[in-house]
Structure formats: structure tokens, C-alpha cells
Amino acid sequence: MITPKPAQLQPRYDVVVVGGGPAGLAAAVGARESGAERVLVIDREPEAGGILQQCIHPGFGLHHFGEELTGPEYAQRAIEQTLERDVDVLSSAYVLDVASDRRLKVTSRDHGVAFLDAGAVVLAMGARERTRGAIRIPGERPAGVMTAGFAQKLVNLGGMLPGRRAVILGSGDIGLIMARRLVLEGVEVEGVYELMPHANGLNRNLVQCLHDYDIPLHLSTTVVHIDGRERVEKVTVAPVDEAYRPNMAKARDIACDTLLVSIGLIPDNELAHRLGLRLDPVTTGPVVTSTMETTRDGVFACGNVVHIHDLVDYVSQESELAGRGAGAYATGTPTPPDNVRLTPGENVRYCVPPTITTDREHTVYMRVTKPMAPCTLHLGDVYKRPLRYVFPGEMVTLKVRPRFLEGFHGGSLPVSIVPREEGGSA
Amino acid sequence: MRYDVAVIGGGVIGCAIARELSRYHLRAVVIERECEVGLGTSKANSGIIHAGHHGAEGSLKGELEWRGNQMWDALADDLHFGFKRVGDLTCAFDEDQRATLRQIMEQGKRRGVPGLELWGPERIRREEPHLSHDIVEALYAPTAGVVNPYEACFMLAESAVRNGVDLALERTVVGIRPSEKGFEIAAVVGDDATPELIKARFVVDAAGLHADAIADMVEAGGFRIRARKGEEYLLDKRLVGYVKRVIFPCPTPTSKGILVIPTYDGTLMVGPTATWADKDDLATTAEGSAEVFAGARKLAPGISEKDCIAEFAGLRAVSDTEEFILGPSRVAGFVLAAGMQSPALTAAPAVATVVLDALRDDGLELVAKDDFEPGVPAPVRFAELSSAEQRSLVARDPAYARLVCRCEIVTEGEVRDAIDRGARTLDGIKFRTRAGMGRCQGGFCTWGCMELLHERLGIPLTAVTKRGGDSYVAIPRLEGAA
Questions:
Q1: Are residues B199 and B243 located together in one domain of the fold?
Q2: Looking at A153-204, which runs of residues are DSSP E strands?
Q3: What residues 118-137 of chain A have any CB closer than 8 A to a CB of chain B?
Q4: Which helix (H) or strand (E) holds A363?
Q5: Distance between B134 CA and the closest CA of chain A, angstroms
Q6: Residues from chain A contacting residue B233 (CB–CB below 8 Å)
Q7: Which of A361, A386, B186, B224 is the most buried (most CB within 10 A)?
């Protein structure tokens, strides 16, 4: 794998992208395509590519590259796209701070502590996993309780195993992928437990990772206690009621040495906090415009920093857009500001971007709160589309074309997803 | 090995005693069953240096709290652990509690605790705007502080070792026999069947929860230590600065209650509970969590479970009388430092001087060394340096340019230094550098810390543990797997 480093850091770049995962790499491509000359990607790892490098399973790239790739293959494609466009990549580096005048403080082994000025900045640091502490599982604190993503790194990059017999809490995609991965490595996976009455991962992962390997999925069930002084010895699981209160009368113990938690991702927003960006309490990422610009001029954000995506392909698409916005900003190309607000209505948790324009096409990503099938997506009363089903683990994407809004003169459009009678017209 | 003094227990009390002993010409050893010092009760507590006005008049706890309180500034100057005097506020919600505040204030004043003030609602709202508006009055004590207790243990032990004290880690004392020249201590190392014999003229029992069993080995006891569990919950950095002082409810005769603590590093901690428990029960509970957050919300209504990033439980070593059991025992040469519950952390430096007095009274010669070195080198804290300092540091040693922990901004150089100064485990690194203590709870930095332990200690990655024993993080791939 080739990740050239810049021979020397320039004091000023048109666009600096923080994060060299799929979001940052795509943003760099977008920035170059919109006319930015000098583009730098700063990545914390020795090799760019982000978390994709530990995702050795297939299933990536069908939408973006039109073929099925593994994570490292997808990463390699993305890296090559940036290198073809003369983007500088600074690896093993870390952005300590971004000031509001877009001066970045960077530390790296090769260049020490340095300051760079950027015409525009793109935040593409990805997400981190929620941990045991976030949901306060009672019990002791032995080794052997870890996030599914950390276990993935242990197995796929470290050539080690997290343990011999595992229980998985949470049906997020990484947990499902790791259930299969551990079984392939000879680890016994006792089962996957999910607090919600529905799974949280992609449907295809439920089928390909659990059903195909006879790993049971227990819905509306959670881990209520962890035992073990040094290493996990057992966990206790119990079913929960509608208010997620465990029924301890039906609790049962499971002997195991490992508990993987796959209970969701949170946008990584240390720098957003430092910059004082306005954050959305639902996504916990920065509030962005339709060009992915944050509440700070010239600072853009994309990928899992903004909201948690289901497929990397959408990360790439959204991030190219952010890169194009950053490039346009840095080169002084004006973009018409947003003039329509999308308001989440029934069964819509959020829309990204939350505001759009009437002059061009937009892709809007949204998440639902509960499964529904069949149903109809309503964009105010200007547009509606039938959907076979919606599922909290999968994003809903909506292309909003200017013609939908031809007769619309208001400022705010509610977006809702409502049940549809079987056989009825949409 | 033959020593003048063996200190059994490497908690904050044992470490403080060891460091006091290291001032003198004598051979001393600290015997600790964990793989590093300070990993028991000392690590898992509220980290408060109490103001000095809490303990009842005439009680040993009360007197030593105030004496110990005044010794922490000098210790922190020498040993560079996290300590600052942030002050505390004890809050009253009704007339009865106001009367209690006055009583505590008078008690503190008579003891000589300076700066005690009663604040009315306006002052409270100005100084601590996030506290409940139902608080009618609060007692302010500027002498209260917060400390990183594990750092204090590490640094006290390091100072003692630099001045000649031995650390005998991972040794569980299974028997003590009086001998002609003092005591023979049998200590089991790991899984070995034959214990190692450690000979010492004097023994200090600072064995925390097990001080009763240790004392019984030479029939110096006759007291019982029970474990009272305290659960604590750490909150996200989002709430840094939410309160500036340690916030107490009005105490009851049995408990200081649920507190809101701005820890040394700024993040908030809420707790502790107080329930009887077995001596190995370190489990947090759903009930404890509910009690802590309800109690914290009573003081600061904006505190929410949603901000919790980690939780832990610690066990207080409580004697039958609830008082410290400190000083000579009925066996000559066997000195007790037992029943060390709150305010034992505050009192620790004073406890150490009391123990040394008792040893002297029992016949230990204390001849001061000329070459006692009170200080230890200050650890590098990259995140706290100015940009100019960071640049010159990194130019000198590029290991400080690579980040290992991004939540708390900890560099490879700092982790390496921690290992070189005694960290043997992930917890040892965490409690020295904060790597793994932030909002991602080690999700990112565990890998880097494992690699550095592997490199510096020459152990396989699969031998890296969270805190010794069987607390391994990973195992090798299974034979014959796909």
C-alpha cells in the first residue's frame, strides 16, 4: 500500500481535510474537482483508509464503485483517487486544534508541532463506538468487555482473538459482522442480544452473519450484570418490557469470557467542540447546510462526523459534496444559500442536510425511529414516494429535484414516513 | 530478604508510610498483592481532600483529617500528582440542615480550619449557578481539594523507591510468625505453591480490607474490618466546569451522602453510595446508579445519566467502631493502620507520621538520611504545555509528537515514560497518563498502549493485561481455525 507523504508541509493550503478515512479521501477528491489546487489530508494512522482497513469482509462499493469490494479494497480505490489528483496525505499526524481563522495546529512524527492555514477545512474524523459506560451495565469491570470494533482490530489487524466464548450485546452492524468473524475463527458465539424490539444492523448482515451461521438473535433482551474479577466469567441477560425495564424474574446467566458491545456510534467531535460549532442534539454531529458547511464559515464536515451512515458508499458521496463545497469556498466560487428547511415529521429522526435549495438537486439522508412496511415518504405535499419498508438500521435516501419544488413557496417542508395500506395506491 | 520494616499493603496509606520511612537510614519493603500499588480502595474513591471541618471533635478521624489536609500542598509540589484546592460547599435544604451547617462550621473553626463562610441563596447562585434553587444556605470551605488518588500512590511509591525502599508486588501475605528478631512473613507469589519468606524487625499492617486477617496472624487484632461499597459515576467532558467546587449535601450521622465532584482533571464524578458488601464485591448496580443520579440531581438538577461515560465501585475498610485503628498493637513491633475509610485519603500523610512515631516508640531507630531526595521528576503532560514548549519537546524527542490517546491528548512519549516509571498494565498506564480515561474509554488507545507495553517490557501482546492476573485482553488464534 502506498501512502506518500508530502516532502515538506506548506504553510498554507486551499483545503485541509482532517481525517483520511473514506470521508476525508472523498472530500479531498471533491475539493480538487471544484478547483482547489493545494489539498492536504491529515490522517492519524500510518496508512490512510480509516476503519475500512480493519473491515476485511466484502459488501462495500456496490453503489459508489459499482462492484463489491472488501474494506481494504475500497480504501485502496479511494486512496488511489486522491493520489491521481495530486492530493497530499500526511499520515501518523494529528490535528490538535483548529482556530476560527482556520489555522490548524498539527502534530506528527515527521514535522513535529506545526501550524497550517487553510482556505477551507473539512472535518472528516469519523465516529467512535459507544462503550459499556454509556449504558451503565451493572456489575464488575473485568477485562474481556470490549467494543465490537476493538475486537475487529484485534482479530483482523492483530491476528489475535478477544476470547473463547463470546456474548454480543447490541445488533449494530459491527457486532453482526464480528459474530460471523469470531465463528470463522473458532470462537463460540453464544448469541446476540438487542435491547430494542428490532435489530439495528442492515438486513443483509442479519441474514449473512447470523442466520447463515445459526447464531441466535434475542430481541428486547439486554445484559443486566457482568461477573468476573480479572476476566469476564459470566454475564446475566434478561428480557425487557416496553419501557426497557429488565424483568429480573426471567434473568439467566451465560458463562463466557468475552462480552462485545455493539451499541452504536457517536460522531467524533472534539474539534467541532473546540471550534464552537453548533451541534444537532439528535445526530450529535455539526449542523450543516446543503453544501455540508458547518455554522463556522469555511469549515465543512462530512461522513460519520455529521451523522452515522449505514453504507460507506453514501459516506463517499456525501463527502465529495462537502469537498466540492470546501473547494468552492476556498476558490471564492459563490453557492446560492439554502432557502428550504426540512422538518422531521412522523417516523423521521433527522434529515441531513436539514436545509436545501430550490435551484439544484439534493440527496437527503434520513433515519427512521421504528420499522414500518409498507409505507409512504411524504415531502410536504409536493412529493411522495412509496417505500417497501423502512428500518432504523438502514438510512432512507431521497433525491429532491428542483421540479418537486416548482410550486412551493414556503420556507419549511415537513418530511414524514407513514404506513400505507397494503394494495392501496401510494 | 531481611528488612527493618515491612509495610503490608501498597495503598495510599502504605505508600505514604513507605515514603516517610525512606527519609531514614533503614531497610523497608512494601508488600502488595496487586501488580501495582494503589489499585485497590485507593484508586476507587472520590479523590477528595476533605476541608478539615467534617470529622467530630475529639475523634482521630477528625483530627487527622485536618492535619493531613495541611500536608498535601508540600507533597504535591514534590511529587507532581494532580492536586488542587477547589473548595467545597455543604448544602442545606431546610432549617434543621441549616442548624447542622452552623454546628459543622463551629467545629471547624475550633479546630482552626480557616475561611469557613455561610453563603445565602444569592451568593450560591452567583458562584455555582447550576445548583438547585431549593438550597437555602451552604457552608463554604476553601481548604477542600481534589486529588488524583492513584497518581498520589504511584508518586509516593516512586519517591520511596528512589530513596531505597523495596516494592514486593504480586505477593499475597499468607502467614506471619513472630521470630527472635521480629517477624517472618510468608508471601505467595502468583501461583507458586511455596511462599517466599520476608523477614522484618517491624511490621506495619496497612492491608486495607484485610488488615483484620493480617493482624490476626500474630494475634495483634481482635477487630473486624467490613467492606462498605461506594459506587461512583463519571460524566462526559461536556459538563466540565458545571460545578467549580465539591458539592456535599448536609451530612447525616452515618454518611456524607451523594456528592458532585469536579475531579482534578475537570470531568464531573457523582457518588458514592454506601452499602455493606463482601470484600471482593466490586460490582456496580442498577440500584446504586439510580441512587447516585437521584442524589446528584437533588444538588444539581441538570445532571443526567445520559452523560455517564464510566462507573466503578470501591470498598471502604470499615472498623467495628467506624474509627481509625492506628498505632501500636498488643504485639510489640507490630503497628496498625487499619479501618482506613474516609477521610483516610486526606489523613494519609498524617497517618504516616503517627505510624512512624509508633515504630519509634516500639524501638525503631530513625536516623535521618542526608541524601533523602524529596522530589521526583515531573511527568510530561503534553496537553498542558504551550505550543512553544510542545515544539521544543517534540524536536528533542519525536515520541511526544505521536498521539496514542486522542480523547485526553496523550502522546506515545508519555505512555513510554509511564511504563519506564513502573506501569505494567493498561490500568497502570491509564491511571498515570489518563490514556483510556476519556469519553471513548480506551476504544482507540488500548491498541497503542498494548503495543508499547509489548515493546518496552518485551512481552507478547497476548500477555498484556488490564490489571494483572488473568485480566488479559486478547488470546492467540486457536489452532486449526479457518
A1: no
A2: 160-161, 165-169, 188-193
A3: 128-129, 131-134, 136
A4: strand A362-367
A5: 29
A6: 136
A7: B186
